[in-house]
Write a structure and sequence with these properties.
This protein is mostly beta strands. It is built from no helices and 11 strands.
Length: about 120
């Protein structure tokens, strides 16, 4: 199985950018489809973005698709979420996730511990 650890969260102002990193260990990253989810205060966890095993296909939630970018570096065993033009509505705990096979919007087997992102107006 694979272990995931997020980093890069923090507090920023509206319009700022932030990059989250998810470091993987345990098994080669190319075996997994990867994704980012988030959970805002008082809400359920929601899909943000996913990427296939070699990075040539990605999918985004409509609320972020023109602002966020998911990428991966299999050689470094890391994947990333670049977040641009952040707004207070993006405030949430962000989770990275992995699953064997093709990416989906929901069913992931392995999860990181979460990274807090807070956007102030």
């Amino acid at each position: 199985q694979v272990q995931l650890v997020e980093s890069g969260g923090g507090s920023v102002m509206t319009g700022d950018s932030l990059k989250l990193t998810c470091a993987a260990s345990g098994r080669p990253l190319y075996l997994y489809a990867l994704a980012w989810f988030r959970q805002a205060p008082g809400k359920g966890r929601e899909f943000v973005a996913s990427i296939n095993w070699n990075g040539d296909s990605a999918r985004y939630a409509p609320s972020v698709e023109d602002r966020f970018l998911i990428t991966r570096n299999n050689a470094m065993s890391e994947f990333y979420l670049r977040m641009n033009r952040l707004s207070p509505e993006d405030t949430a705990i962000y989770y990275c996730a992995a699953r064997p096979g093709e990416p989906t919007d929901s069913a992931y087997d392995y999860w990181g511990q979460g990274a807090q992102v807070t956007v102030s107006s």
